[in-house]
Design a protein that fits this description.
By secondary structure, the protein is α+β, with helices and mostly antiparallel strands. 40% of the residues lie in helices and 16% in strands. It starts with a helix and ends with a helix.
Length: 272
C-alpha cells in the first residue's frame, strides 16, 4: 500500500513538473519574440510615416510644381528630428525647401504647411556666385567662399541690413552649413531674383551664398518662415549627410500624427 501511495505521489509531482515546464517560455524564444514584435512596431510606424508623407505630398499638389517626393521626404524627416531635439518652434509646422538640383530659372523654393497639407509659396531662389551659373554645383561652409551651403537650417531673428528686411539662419549640419551665421548667410530680397533677370541673362542673378528671393516677396516669406522654422537646401551631387536624416526616429514622432488623423478620418466617415 505504501509503495502504491509513493508511486501515485511521484506520478503527480512529475505531472506538475512537466506541466510547469511546458508553460515556461525559453529565454531565447522570448528574446526572439520581443525582437520580432519590436521590428513589427518599427515597420508599422515607418508605413504610417510613408502614408503621412504621400498624403501631404498629394494634398498639396507638390508633384505638379516640380518638387520631388524624395527631396520632400528628406526635408520632413529633418523637420521631425529637429523638432524632437527642441530646435524648432512648437507653434509652427512650416517647412521651406530649396532644391539646388534644379536650374535657377526654375521655381525651386517651396514653403509647405505640414499641419494643413498646403503649399504656401513656390518661387525662385538664388544661389552663390561661385556655386555655379544657372545651376549650383559647388558648395562650401567657408567664409568668403561666395558659395551656397547645403543642409538643414533653423530660421533666427529678423533684422534690417544692407539688403533691407532680412532673416538670419543657423546651420544645423556640422561641416556643411555650421558657419552660416558667421558668414552672414541670410534670407533677403534681391532685385536680381526676377523674371527680367532670367530674360536678360538666361538665369537668375547670384548672391554671396545667401538664399536670396524676389524683393516683393521678402515680407511674405520672412513673416511666414520666421521664428525657428526649418529651411532645407538640397543637392544630390555632393555626398551630403546629416544626423537629422534618421527616418526611423522621425517616423516615431510623425506616426502619432498620422494615427490621430486616421482616427479622425474614421470618425468623420461614420458621421460621429
Amino acid at each position: 500500500m505504501r509503495r502504491y501511495l509513493l508511486g501515485i505521489t511521484a506520478f503527480i509531482v512529475l505531472t506538475i513538473a512537466l506541466t510547469t515546464i511546458s508553460w515556461v517560455p525559453m529565454a531565447g524564444n522570448t528574446t526572439k519574440h520581443d525582437s520580432l514584435a519590436k521590428a513589427d512596431t518599427v515597420a508599422a510606424k515607418e508605413s504610417l510615416y510613408q502614408t503621412y508623407l504621400k498624403r501631404i505630398y498629394n494634398t498639396a499638389h507638390l508633384a505638379e510644381t516640380g518638387l520631388r517626393l524624395n527631396v520632400f521626404e528628406m526635408a520632413v524627416t529633418g523637420f521631425y528630428n529637429l523638432k524632437k531635439s527642441g530646435k524648432l518652434s512648437s507653434d509652427k509646422s512650416v517647412v521651406t525647401i530649396a532644391d539646388m538640383d534644379l536650374n535657377s530659372t526654375r521655381k525651386r523654393l517651396w514653403i509647405v504647411d505640414l499641419e494643413n497639407g498646403t503649399l504656401l509659396l513656390n518661387t525662385w531662389v538664388a544661389h552663390g556666385q561661385r556655386s555655379g551659373d544657372d545651376k549650383a554645383i559647388n558648395f562650401s561652409n567657408t567664409s568668403d567662399s561666395h558659395q551656397s551651403s547645403l543642409g538643414f537650417y533653423v530660421t533666427g531673428e529678423i533684422y534690417t541690413g544692407q539688403h533691407g528686411r532680412s532673416l538670419r539662419l543657423d546651420g544645423m549640419d556640422e561641416g556643411f552649413n555650421s558657419n552660416a551665421r558667421s558668414r552672414d548667410i541670410v534670407v533677403h530680397g534681391a532685385s536680381y531674383v526676377s523674371a527680367g533677370t532670367i530674360k536678360a541673362l538666361g538665369r537668375l542673378g547670384r548672391s554671396h551664398g545667401c538664399p536670396a528671393i524676389a524683393p516683393e516677396l521678402t515680407n511674405k516669406v520672412i513673416n511666414t518662415i520666421g521664428g525657428k522654422t526649418l529651411l532645407f537646401i538640397n543637392s544630390s551631387d555632393k555626398g551630403y549627410t546629416s544626423k537629422y536624416l534618421d527616418e526611423q526616429s522621425a517616423a516615431s514622432l510623425a506616426a502619432g500624427t498620422e494615427e490621430a488623423l486616421l482616427s479622425q478620418d474614421t470618425v468623420d466617415s461614420l458621421n460621429i
